[in-house]
Fold these 2 entries.
Entry 1:
Amino acid sequence: MSTKKRARKTVKKTVSFSDDTTLTTYQNHEKKNADHDRPPVYVRKTPLMNFPYHLVMLLYYYIFLSSDFNTVKLLSLLIPAQISYLVLQFNKCTVYGNKIIKINYPLALICLGVTFLLSFPAMLLTILFGAPLMDLLWETWLLSLHFAFLAYPAVYAVFNCDFKVGLWKKYFIFIVVGGWISCIVIPLDWDRDWQNWPIPIVVGGYLGALVGYTIGAYI
Amino acid sequence: MNLKQFTCLSCAQLFAILLFIFAFFPRKIVLTGISQQDPDEDRDLQHNRPFQKLVFVIIDALRSDFLFDAQISHFNNVHQWLNTGEAWGYTSFANPPTVTLPRLKSITTGSTPSFIDLLLNVAQDIDSNDLSEHDSWLQQFIQHNNTIRFMGDDTWLKLFPHEWFDFADPTHSFFVSDFTQVDNNVTRNLQKKLFQEWAQWDVAILHYLGLDHIGHRDGPHSKFMGTKHQEMDSILKSIYDQVLEHENDDDTLICVLGDHGMNELGNHGGSSAGETSAGLLFLSPKLSRFAKPEPQETHILPINGTPDHDFQYLESVQQIDIVPTIAALFGMPIPMNSVGIIIPDFLQLLPNKLASMKENFMHLWRLSDHHDDVALDDFTINDIYTKMHDIQETLTRSATNYNYPLLAVAFVSFLFTTIVAVYQLQRYSGPSFCHLHISSLSVILVSVILGVSTFASSFIEEEHQLWWWIVTASSVVPLFLYPSNAFVFARWFIMIACVRLIKFWNNSGQKFIYSNVMSNLLNQNPFWKWYLNSSTFLALIIPSARSQLLHFIVTTILVGLCFTYKISWEIVNGNQAEIPPFMQGLLTKMDFLPTENNLLLLARVFFQAWSIVVISRLALTKLKVLDKRYLIEDMKLYITVLLIFQTSSQNIGQFIIFQILQSQIYYFFQHLPTSLSLTSPSEVYLSSLVSLILQNFTFFQFGGTNSISTIDLGNAYHGVSSDYNIYVVGILMSVANFAPAIYWSMLPWSINYGSASSQNKLQTFIMSKMPAFTYHCIFGACLMTACIFLRFHLFIWSVFSPKLCYFLGWNLVMGLLNGWLPELAILFALD
């Protein structure tokens, strides 16, 4: 439905934080000259370059190697891995105004802080979507931190590319959808360790992010 | 499709479900006839029987820890007897369904119950419960000319003919709000009918209900529990003192047991450890002369908890083992259908223990369809017991058989209605059959998700999680459909916060029980509960002021009556301290004295006032005296008041959340983006789908589950006196249990009938019923397939069959009664 909606809209002339202008601009890009107020932003379609190898390794570590699903330790591995993914892979695929911009280290650092702060609204959303309201708050916050740092490259990109949220929205959505789908294993009566809160959702979030960063450029 | 065709389709569906249930719930093969022995042998056994008198005390829902656990038990005398060896204690396994009638059948006949007994427990008028022709230890006592006296739960008199009892004083079992009178009615006869006429009876049966009633009301940790334990304990003491008093009469056996246990909410019916672990106690001065059961040697009572919290204290036995044990101890043959095994500790009391064991073994051997004799002489006692346990296990498992041809007919006809329903749903929504429109697609998607989930028993138990999963998914849809501005976002946020709050209100399912849920918090802070409840009542009155004056007055009266009743009910039930004083002051100002009788009267006044208001409102609108613009809104309000009347106090606050949530949903429906270009059928479908999702979601968040044990009986007796009418109670019970679902089924009314012309209204009615109907068809087809394929599954009777009953309930109550009557009445008035 949403694509249909977008296609019908006329191109807005104002500068806004929202979404749709970027895509429309990009779609029309080949016909028109580049608009310097709104330079095209997109992710290059280079599957090998985009692919988040570190997420696969982290998942493998979390599921098969780590003892009793140590979510804290996973987080401490995730943060450096995401930073290097951003610097080495993601940023090199992001095209802004027909060129790849160099990594902006101070901004990357600021974004770390922002991502950390983002974990609180993420926690609110997690609770609204069904995390226990008064119990297991620490686990829920850990989960939100994971979600936030999974989105870290996208957060950086949002800041780096003039808040064109529309293009990066899908990365956030993929993570959320992954977490949402993974909830389905919780009610099963298998009584496994990995069914404990928040382990399945963490795994689901990682899988969602994995899919998101892999195919994000094509959507 | 016109109304006639739709009616036919609905009837066909309901008929198929009923047929399926009739075929699926098997009646067990019960051997007729009464066990008999060779007359000489019988005389011999009777002469040597270890005990002469039996006092059989059933304390309803006496869970094992109530007898044995130091944390919760107040049975101090019992602990003392257990320590001296005068009493032998066991944890007995009560086969599910753990409700009274099937349990009594098991305890007396020794057979395991079938699921159909559970349903009959609710509909007790049906005659098939008569055990007068069947063999039981009562039957054997009668055959051996013993006198039986009975006092307690009248379920016994439904099972056994009145003539068997030399004296009988039955009490009603279904009136759950009373828990002192019901027990005093039993105890009052002890002195006169048992103690003073000691020589005139051989068997006395006492059945106490109070403890079960406390459990239903307040749960196992209720403040009333301690005193109830002490009361029961002192009654046992008084009986035991009588036994001791009758000098050399140490041949009286007192048998104390719970017919089942209860779960942590105080309900029963399912198969959790708490529900199936009942306490069992044998008490006699004679027992102290024999060796105590082994665990009693090593443990000093009361025991301080069990390692796994599984309620297994001391030795664990099957509850049906009581039957051959009693038969052996009183020198009688084992009842025909018994699959019990004599409790090993009692062998030492028997005059000829090898013969008794052999009889027990041969009995089981023949029951398991063997006709040859076995030479038992080579086996040791332990070997025989292992063999008997093996047979017992097979016998209890395979006690069922199915009517396959009938099942097939029912299933095929249900599949047929499903295909017709899907076809019709599709035909309305799009230009052609193959062109799937998003609205009908989502209906089918939801149905298929839920349908497939029925193949996993845990998804049936935790169905509320699936609905929550769907609710979260569907609640993000507005974010994508509507222009993203702050106003829409605020609406959306309020909506999802409401939904989350509803999810927070109660525990549902079996797996996750949180103590921090709204209903618990409210019960711990009762003043807050009543402030919230009164604001809910106010929130009903205030919007009615915008309508006609008459409506405002009528609503105020109805709400006032409802509020007065709710407060008085709490006071009558001993929770006076929970009501804020100023609300009690209101009662005194109104000169209303909350007593049992006044309560009954008040409830009847409310029901009468409500019916008069609703009927006259409909009639006056039809006669065009009153404006029909407000009819739908006003009717919704009246029905909401009735629903609140039938809701427990800790859930009343949910209705204010419902009101807020509903206004947000209306906003989204009124401002559907034009870009969606929804045809009117799809809009009807969408509103019905939202209604369906919320019905199921809130049903579970009101504390409902798919287990029989959470059926709320506490609200089924408003305005009903002790000589109740089963149909009235049935209707009240349905309204109480489906209250939130009924509320949300009214959601599409204003969306659908706001603008449609009268000719279209009937068509809209059918269309709005299609999504729920299709959902029930697809879901039911999957559920039936699951039941057929998994008919030998371990959980077939504890999970799948209750779900089948709930499915029938949803179709009958929500689909037919609630889905058709109110809506058609309104359409008629609007014409």
Note: The two ends of chain A are 14 Å apart (CA to CA).
Entry 2:
Amino acid sequence: MERSTLGLKLPEGMRDLLPGELASLEALEGKAIQVCKNWSYQKVATPGLEYRACVEPDANKEDRLYKFFDKNGHIVVLRPEFTTPIARMVSARQRGGIFPLRYCYSGDVYRNDSSRYREFRQVGVELVGSGSDIADAEVIALAVEIMKALEIRNFQLSLGHNGIFSGLAQEMNFSPKLREELEDGIARKDMVKMESVISQSELPEAAKDLLLSMPHLTGKEDVLNKLQSWNHIPAIRRAVESLRTIYLYLKDFGVQEFVSLDLGILRGFSYYTGAIFEGYLPGIGSPVIDGGRYDGLYSDFGINLPATGFAVNLGIMIEQLQDYEVENADILVYGQSPGAVIKRCRELRKGGKKVEMALGYITDTDARKMASSRGISELERVES
Amino acid sequence: MTKNFITIALPKGKLLEDSVRLLNHAGIDCRSVEEDSRKLMFELTGSEARIIICRPTDIPTYVEYGAADIGFVGKDTLVEQNLDVAELVDLKFGYCRFVVAMPEETKPPKLADGSYDLSVLNHKRAATKFPRVAQMFFSERGMQVTPIKLHGNIELAPRVGLAEMIVDIVSTGTTLRQNKLVEIAPIMEATTRMIANRVSYRIKYERIQGLAEKIRELI
């Protein structure tokens, strides 16, 4: 049946990839996965469809999911990320696993929002079962090594910590309303709202100062010294110590120069509990790496495990990366007898060559033209 | 282009003059912007910056994608579009309010506390340039009101029966009076904001924060 106008289009945020474009994406993906494997991360896959109850248990929350009903009337969604599905998988199939588990993945994720790419490729890792600072440092260093392997030079990684805000909230006994308003302000990155909520709150002046200054605590190690006066709050002290330790390990990993400390990383409070980090590339308006520690997620799945990890949003940076060449065939085979041509092609392929077969008889001149236009260096005419 | 180079998106129209004045005072010499009202892009060679002039409603989009590092835009537009940008400073100018308004003759009865009884407006329609704001306001009150998106001259809609009420921004109230409309409920207040792309704000932090602080001192 002939297609209607709609049938000729793609849904918003979707795109096709031609051979050159796909070659670039796959080359990058392959390099990134190779680095992960060199660090002993094993590749896993989870399905494209999950129950909504898995990826977003809060039924009232506004979400950005592509949703469908299955035959039983349950809501299923296209996966918006891999971290939660991997937690589901580990809790279901690796309860007795040997921890820490190191998993990596690559695949497309789907987000039904207004962004340019609503389906894009992610490569990422999860390090499950270790709550130590060295685990955080390992995944951050791995993220840097991946960017280096992708030959991306001008990226910047920012490292922050969710424990400072939550420690303060707990210590100062934030009312649920205040907490909700601040979290909303942080998620929306609305500093104007945060300022007015903070200054109108009944918090002590020092706490107000800390909250107001957090977005501006950015730089190298010295930003941590500015938090010294909060050492009496255990959660803040732990967060600062942990950042300091991670930062030192990053030096051992040889990646410290790529990472700055930034307590102003503004992110919604989804599932992150500890050190969080983001990777930026000039010219790309959203982070190309999202990562951090999420020690509460696995307990939602009935298995209490600390974990950390990150995802590289390969799909959103593809246009900034160099083109990779499509692999052309090694040889073009042509001739008058189809049977003889097919036979010769089979022999050559068996021998490991990439072979293009002319469909129907062509002259020597046409064969030369065809080969040169397709970047095929060798020609073979089969005599019958 | 150096790391500290920034692109600033300014809204054409009534907010432009105030925005340019503020930037001038903050040390970004953009007098050239005032001289030529048809140009859309100005390279400010002395200031490591360039200015682009956009439709006010497009500014969050330029900033979200990072095509502009910072922008000046009304809170009304920000709330309606709900895009992923960082909101840095309340610039205090361009004050307006979101209100629900109705024709004088069909306004709802008043409740004991002096406010209008909005509950009689269920199953009615509201003409607006801001369907998201309207929807949020009514649905938070459990009301079923259908927003009808228009692009201008909202006041016309109730007069020809397209909608029973309007949701719009008012600054002085003159337009409402001229069209025999009365405000029946306030929704929220809005002023102009300085916004930044979330990645630019982190990688060009010093430049952008420096500018934000200078601006904050001026208002």
Note: Residues 96-189 of chain B form a domain with the D-Maltodextrin-Binding Protein; domain 2 fold (CATH 3.40.190.10).
